[in-house]
Amino acid sequence: MVKTTKQIRRSLTLPEPTAREVASIARRRRLSDNRVLVELIEEGIEARRQKEKAFFDLAQRFRSSQDAEEVQRLGEQLGRFVFGE
């Protein structure tokens, strides 16, 4: 038996360049625009989860490190994580 997920209808407005890019991807992959949007959203959610996990892993390494040089290096990495390059 295949379990289906309840679907919720949403409406959104995309900037024109983004809408064109979605339509282009959909044509190349022979999918609907909606399917492409769902896939992109799911990929974005997963990427955010991975980024959060990487941040918390780095923070844990920073907190548990006893080596001053490593603390300095990890602190710099955390700073880049938070504030960008």
Q: Specify the number of helices.
A: 3
* Biggest sheet statistics: none
What would the average pLDDT be, to the nearest integer? 92
Q: DSSP strand (E) fraction? A: under 5%
The level of helicity is over 70%
Please identify the structural class as seen in this structure. mainly alpha
Write the element-wise H/E pattern from the N-terminal end onward.
HHH
Number of domains: 1
Calculate Rg over CA atoms. 20 Å
Distance between the termini: 49 Å
Identify low-pLDDT runs.
none
Number of beta-strand segments:
0
Q: Which overall shape is indicated by the principal axes computed on the Cα atoms?
A: elongated
Topology (SSEs and partners):
Blueprint: H1 16-29, H2 33-64, H3 68-83
Give an overview of the whole structure.
This protein has helices at 16-29, 33-64, 68-83. The chain has one domain (16-83). Helices cover 73% and strands 0% of the residues. With 85 residues, it is mostly helical. It starts with 15 loop residues before the first helix and ends with a helix. It has three helices and no strands.
Short overview:
This protein is mainly alpha-helical and 85 residues long. The chain is 73% helix and 0% strand.
